[in-house]
Specification:
globular; mainly beta; 31 strands; binds copper (II) ion
Amino acid sequence: MIVSCPNITRRRFMQGAAAAGTLSLIPSPLRRAFAAPPVLRGTEFALEIATVPLALNGRQATATGVNGQVPAPILRWCEGDTVTLAVTNSLGEPSSIHWHGVRTPSPMDGVPGLSFSGIAPGGTFVYRFPVRQSGTYWYHSHSMFQEQTGLYGAIVIAPKAGYAQAFDRDYVVLLSDWSFESPKTIVSNLKFQSDYYNYGQRTVATFIADAQRAGLADTVADRLEWGRMRMSPTDILDVSGATYTYLINGQPPGANWTALFRPGERVRLRFINGSAMSIFDVRIDGLPMTVVQADGNDVQPVTVDQFRISVAETYDVIVQPPADRAYTIFAQAEDRTGYARGTLAPRAGMAAAIPPMDPRPLRTMADMGMAGMEHGEMPGMELSPEGKRLEGKVGVDNVAMMPADRLQSAGEGFPPGRRVLAYADLRAIKRGSDPRPPTHEITLHLTGNMQRFIWGFDGKKFSEAGPIELKRGDRVRFVLINDTMMEHPIHLHGLWSELDNGHGEFRPYKHTINVKPGERLSYLVTADAPGRWAFHCHLLYHMETGMFREVHVA
Ligand SMILES: [Cu+2]
């Protein structure tokens, strides 16, 4: 259950003793239902990547797993150890494993073509690196679409100095999206029609309803404006519940993955979004959640009713269920086309009501960075707000004319009255390790061509752009401006991204930063690790269609 690192103090370890005792009393046939996926501990690991038969909702499929498991086993490490992971590829194609958010030397980072040459079919690559951090992370394939077909798992690293917050139990809650369609089919469907999976298109009926509410002229103008941008306000996620089944720890909603507690205990839930394309809004009705960690780093505790978790992010929350009853862990896809569901319960087999989904969010003109614009005044397509030409061959749909600071907002689609986590709420519990101000800025526009389903930075695909060059020791401000109407969780490998969210030296350290439509945000980076690092949108099909760069630290 909790930590068993020799370097964890006795006092901290005792917090886990009661929970471990409870688990051992559970009859073994039941145990797997809420112990899955299995846990591997220690410093030496043998991991085998192979196809795995998967049964989900009565259908059979072939997935990509590790040691026969989807999700892959939970790896429990101890801060201060050196871990060795021998990864054997038993697939018929090249593979790889990337340790997401873990600061390894560049050759151990697991990105084929940048860190190493990948793991050939039948080959074994031995990863070995010191563990110099703690927290909740995850690992996944960085080869083709294997992440979509199951190659992802949790990493939990116990802190050497003990936990900042006490808790009695500790569970990984790994969210993911599964499709019975092959990833290649999904990509070709999106290339054929970018709203292929979007069944929420506004229709004649919604036009009439909008016209009655907002007036005919405004409604026509609104439709014309969206039409000119070749976009739809119902495009929230590119791939939806039309093809996805949403999973918690590999379990579909009906299987009801369950975490046990005794009333009054403090339960730490380690949420990881291991999806390919799905952003989730998470809540547990009747149970406030205290967020204590983001992307593996402790934050000042903040209590909320709901949080949005973008692809590849992690949030640790502590809940304290007071009553002898079940609570539903409810993770709606942002576009409300489906949900993942699990249960917190004092005994196995219990369930609570599944709440209705919240109303579907709609993109607004503010999401386009267009708030305040006159109708009909679409900007020239090539000019960014700084007047810099976007000279890519990709072509971009749109440029945010008035990109805004949106860190105070959790985004769209939350009913009033709910406390929802915003990025501005994240405040590190300790000062950042590099007090130097940045010496220069790197500004990048997040761009896209929806019609052709091509994504990039500054209108360029990866294949058209050179690396971003940094010198070792540089202190740099990255500025991201989202010119698209989709969110993009931007992940920088190897270096921390210190989100500049108003907390000065206490800015939170993140590995993945979700940039909302029309948003301009920035973060500081210390280039303290040499090598070739991947820098990309973590939406799998955005990365694969061009939203990827190399950051080179020389
Ligand atoms: Cu993206």
